TrEMBL record:
GO cellular component, one term: cytosol
Domain Telomere length regulation protein conserved residue range list: 564-681
Protein family per UniProt: Belongs to the TEL2 family.
Polar residues bias (residue ranges): 495-519
Top-rank lineage group of the source organism: Eukaryota
Chain ranges passing through the membrane: none
Name of this protein: Telomere length regulation protein conserved domain-containing protein
Amino acid sequence: MEISDEDNPQAFVKTILLTLQSTSLELDSLVGTLTRFLSWIELLSSSEPTCSSPPTLKLLNNYLPQVQRVLLTQIVVTWEPLLKETDQLCLIDIFFCPPQDRGRWSGLAAIHAYASLCSEPISHSSIRLLSLLTSLYNIDTCYRAIYEIRELNSAQAFVLWTETVAAVFSVPGKIANMAHNQIDVPTEFSQGLYLTKLCRNVYGLIEQISAGLGVPVDYDALIHLFSKMTNNGLFPLRKWKAPSDVSFFSTNMAAIEESASRSPNGLSSPRIWTQIMEELPPGTRLSVICSLFSSLDATKVDLNPSPKERWAIKQKSGVLRHILQQSIVDVNILSAVIAALMKDIWGMAIPRILVCYLFLENPKAIESTLIRVVDRWADPAHVQHSLLSYHRYLTGLLLLLVSYLEPSSKPLSTLSMSPQFISSIGIYISHLDPAVRRCGLLAAETVAEKTGKSLRFDGWDGVGEGREWARDLRTLLSSRDADIVATEDIESPEECNQATPSPVSKLSQLGASGSQVTYDSDDSLTGYGSPPSSRSPSPTPEELDEIERDPTLRVGRKQKILKPVYVSQLIEMLRPKGKDGDHESVEKLDVGLSEAAELIRRKRNFGFELAENAAELSRILLGLQDDYELDNFEKRREAALTALVVCCPQVAGPLFASEWFLNQYSVSQRFTILNALALGARELAGLSTSNASYSLHHSFPSKRLPLTLHAKYTGLQPNVVQDLLEGIKDNMLSSRPQPRNPETRTRRLRLGELPRNLVAGANRVAEKPTFSYKDLAAEYFIIPLINGFWSYMRDEQTRELRTKHTERPYQGAGNATIQSPLVLVQFLRTIGVLIHAAQNSAVYLSVLAPNTLELMLTVATTPASIAIRDDGNDQTAQETVSALEVTLIILVACQELDGCRSLALDHTALLLGIAQWTSDLLTILDNGMRLRGASGPQDQTIGRVVAAVALRVDEATSKWRRSMVDTLV
């Protein structure tokens, strides 16, 4: 296919594309087509006829990538061996990596080559072309090539730059992904080497712009480049360790130090680093500054006060002056520097370098930094919960900033009189760790001494508990690093490398020298003879040291089980190991049970650790079995479950309610769940959880042991819920509750003087509970239990009806099920305790009271199972008494709150149903009949409770009868 000279460049390019895509292409035609196109875009000088119209930028941007992709996908795959034999392969190379001096479009061809090569599957040919391209056109060359094209405006250049940056950074990843195809990857494309070269090229680009070599400046492009480098991990927080990890500042630190030493003030011109730092996004700026700190290789300096190290610190501050320059005046830059400084524990070398730089560049920045550091240092949460290393780091930074302030300066005097600083000293002094305590004492002494005041604490001499660190810091603060001047008196490197022996090593040396004494006055004394001991000899100090160095020598020795510190540790200790668990597992379980309740209560207001693990911990505690016959197993488990209800009611309450209706738990476990709910609810409500109201009254001496010993020797567990409900019922039957009296406040105001106990109680500051039971009772305690009971009853009765006419019908009222009288009575009593503690709830009258009364009425009047009346069960009286007791509690509370108005008007049918139920019970008792299972004492209890309920119902109906009639009508 012949190509004629045309005036239409677009038609010329389309003809080139059709020729390259032709299936009947010959070698000569291919070479001629490639030569003509290269000559047209001025990348190759040739006498072949070509298009008379020169190429335009728009045309090349549209068609040059298409030509390159056709070459990669069709020409190179087919013609590369033949082109290589005829030495014509260089034509293909020019399309992708033309020489830099070949015309004005050479850079544009290389820019598009990056995108074309990275968008197609990687092959041997593309790797070879990428190797040539990256060697000729690195990132700084691409930048100059784009921004030296005059036809491009700033927006077009920026778009082209972003595409190029993305392609350049994707090269090593795309090549690495093809390594599984048995492709030999050159070492230059390994992640570490490629990114290291890229970092050097980026720094070279910035230096070229700073030197004013005619390179155009586009800060948006540089900001995008730095953001891309940050996203690719070239600004790490710590120095890299793996070969594939690269740091921009660590790679170029030698060049940066050389540039900083050439500039007398550490500044480059123009201020390109300042502009970059100011325009970086906040997150990227923080990453860049943190990476800069980690690259300042001065970790060995730390608290070394020698002149040699002080001079090294001052020289390192020149690196910060070269990079940050005068941008520290900007508030955002200073905030980022302070945030990076307090983000991690850098050691004292980085704060020394930074404070020296701030003092030399902008002394006012020291005041702003001091304010931020004091806010963090004096934070009570930091004082109580931070690690010792962070305490020492912040204290050293604080005192380092103070050392650069003049004694008469206003910031220093303000700090010494600051209430925040003074109160924090007291918090430090009350800390349990003596090493942390000395951080506060040292800060107080240093600030007082700096301001000319006298404040001295004792206990600085000696070894241990932070005394050595305090002495080293005092020595460092005796002079400032910024005041050091290079003189001949600076120590040599050999002298600097000699480590000063610590006090511990000095004591060990003294001990070693003392052991070399050849004569002692006691050597002439001879001890009395004694028979040889049958015990094994005690280990010598040398043997003890060897055991400490080699832990394997301690195998077989019993290790003390440590108490759990975190909830996750407690979960691992309580996790069941089976009946065949070893002795260590049994001890861990014993320790875990003993410490569970206390640990849960300690973690109540400490983060989200308890809330995140409360569900798992609850299920583990509920599922525990006393396989090892541990002492007070049930008591300790109940205490832990109660603590969970108190500390995590939103999690534990609904969880216990749902778990109680599962069939996997025994009667003892169900009782434990109900006890935990009852005790936890009363504790949240501020009520007593003791059983003081339940006591035995004997008119004659009893031969029974005290209750504690009786329970110990008989194995009986006290019924906590029954005792609590007995006390509540006795209080209601013995005294008639009165409605809330609105005149109480008026009467008290008329008194001349309040009793002393009332005054003392008013002045006492009570601890505000985290949760209030009146706000949680309906949603997390009572309603989940009631709804769960209705769902369980519906499912059980449905199963009974389905199997009613079979040979062996299903009966849901077995001895170990929820419908058994023993478990059902305990359930009703728990509801009574919960509803009594919730009478101050906002939804008590509208939700809690009617729903609970409906449950009590249904349980007392409807059989739990179809066959329950025919099995001779004697627990009917207990169920009735429990339902009556709960009903009495609710009626008394409703009368106190609104005189039973809501119950009588909004739930008239329910109140009349209770009246009919009590009337039937009174009729039975008046006729001399007994309820099934009732004994002598139970007859008296039933009579008292039925009479009390009937009296309350009669009072309510008498008061609201007319309105009730209107409601029914």
